Structure formats: C-alpha cells, structure tokens
C-alpha cells in the first residue's frame, strides 16, 4: 500500500468511451469540490448521483487515504466536464474511516442512508471492509476497493469452497493469495531459504503472512520464527530478541508502514542486519522515513507495474499534478482512479433511463460486473467473484533512500 500507484504491464491509453483523462482542480480534503456543475442544468433537468469514498483521511494512514480520495475526485470532475452521463452530474461524498472498522461501518451507514449515493470507492483496510461490505450491500450500493487484498472478502472464509459473500463488492487490486506467494518466490529464487515472519494481527497482515508462508514452505524454504506485534506498539525489542538467535536471512512483515518502518530500524540497530520485506502496505516513502538510513536493502511488493513505466500511468500522474492536489496520489491513486471510472462506466448504462439513483442501484451492480476497459492500472475487468483479472506485481527495493523497481512480472 504506499508511494507509487502501480500500473499493470502493457496498460494502454484509457478507453475513449470513458473520456476521463483530463485534469481537475484542487482537491485536498474538500469533499464537496466535485459538486461543481451538479444540480439543475440550464433546462432544470440535470440530476445528481454521488460516488462515495471510505478511507482513512486522518491519522497514520492518511497519506494513502487522501491519495484515494483525490484520485476519485479527479475521475468525477472529468466525467462532469465531458458530460459522460447525459442528464446527470456526479458528486464526491468522502468519509473518513480512520482505518478503524467501527468508524468505517458508521461511514458506510451514513452513505447508505443517502438516496443519491450510487457507488463507493474504498476501503483501504481489509479489516474495515469486513464491516463496510454488509452495510452497503443491504442498500444495494456497489463498492469497489482499490486496496483491499484480503482473500475472504470475495471468496468467503472457506478457501476450499469459495463463495462470493456480497455481489455488490469488487476490487481493482489483486489479493494476498497472489501477493504473498509472489514475495515468497522472489526471496527463495534470490537464494534466501530461511526467513522469520511478523504480522500485526489485522486481517491484511495476517492473511499476507499466511499466504507467504504456505508458498515459501512449498518451495522448500523454512520459517525459522513466526512472531506477532500489536498495531498500537512502537517498541519491538522482545520480537527482535526472539528472532535474532534463529538467524533468518530475511524478515517478512505483514502490515503497514507505521509499524514496519520502526521495526526495520530497531532490528538493524540491534544487530539483526537482514532485509525486511513486506507487501503493498509498506510501499510508501513514509516507510523509508520511519526506518531511517538502515532501510537500504529492504523490499516491498506492490500490485501492478510502476505507474511511471507506461504511457497511461504517466498521463494519470501528469493530470493529477496539474489538478493541484496538495497530497500525492500515493500507493493506490491509480487503482482508486480506475475504481471510480469502473463505477462511472457502469453508470452510463444504469443511469441512462433511470428516474432516480435508488432505482438504478441494482442495474449498476449488474453493469459493473460486465465492465471492461483499459485503465491506468491496465485492463479493468472483474471475474465471477468481483476480483480483478489483472495479476501483475512488482518488487521494489530501497536503494539510496528511495524505492527502486527490482522486478515486475505476471503471477502464474
């Protein structure tokens, strides 16, 4: 989850029918800025539909949440500027979930109670999504996450018998079932055969470590230590002391950068000089800032290819910059932009002859499942579970105080 907005290899220009690739205006935390042009048209016939955002807009993960919000704002503004949905203007309705499940549930309840909300982009955290999914589903409101990687969100708790829990839920990012094994293969093929694992007990971190461990051991590697931390902790002496005597050659961490950065710094200061590797939750400049100068050599995987490695990704970054947002698009900007555009694409069908937003909600669910277009992150389309069909990932390495691309490949 951090500094880049990853994009899938081979991603092409945005599909012309979306007409969503121009710049907007400054966003920041102004959740009403996309309402420009909404309401009655010159003839008094224009109706309003709202696309919500549920993400951490404050707190430790705000950098990621604000990138999501601004990217959705950009997509909405462009749709309005090009009259993408005749007779309708779109409006942004953003809610801060503070990366907390109960707060996220309240945010979802608020949006579900708004008769003009037609879809929601979010959440960032899989643990928050578990509480948000049923609330939005009960109101038949589509949810498209740019960042949730928990496998159970689309396939249920029984891995042997996958069943989609909510027909309203989709995502533009890939899952832990792919990201964890991708990291395991990278380390094993790099000659690292003994690792330690640590996770933060949250759905994202725990799922990531589980998927990593299963693949690493299947390849012939050994997990010499498996530890956990509490996400509200900032001192990890006991964990480092438990791991160090086992002499792992790398540490795989499941969680996000607010904990991963200090963990990396503290393990190096205590003589455990091995690379820390994590998932997209640590892929942000803040990780390097928190980990300090000893973070060189640390690794992270992230979904898609580097944003600036394709024409469509470069275009998105240029448009985002031109829009004047005060916060970077961060790890999930491209995925949030594509998530918003997938909803907008569906609305071209569902709102075409709709008298109201509520009347169009089921048609939006149906249309979203059939969406297919070339987006910032590559081909945007969903399988029968609501998962993205794109399985490109990238390994990044901290080099000279910056994240540098190490390897981009398709997981098979």
TrEMBL record:
Keyword Glycoprotein annotated: no
Coiled-coil segments: none
Source species, domain of life: Bacteria
Ranges for region Disordered: 25-44
Pfam families: Peripla_BP_6
Protein family membership: Belongs to the leucine-binding protein family.
Domain Leucine-binding protein: 49-400
Keyword Signal: yes
Signal peptide: 1-22
Protein name (Swiss-Prot/TrEMBL): Leucine/isoleucine/valine transporter subunit periplasmic-binding component of ABC superfamily (LivJ)
Keywords: Signal
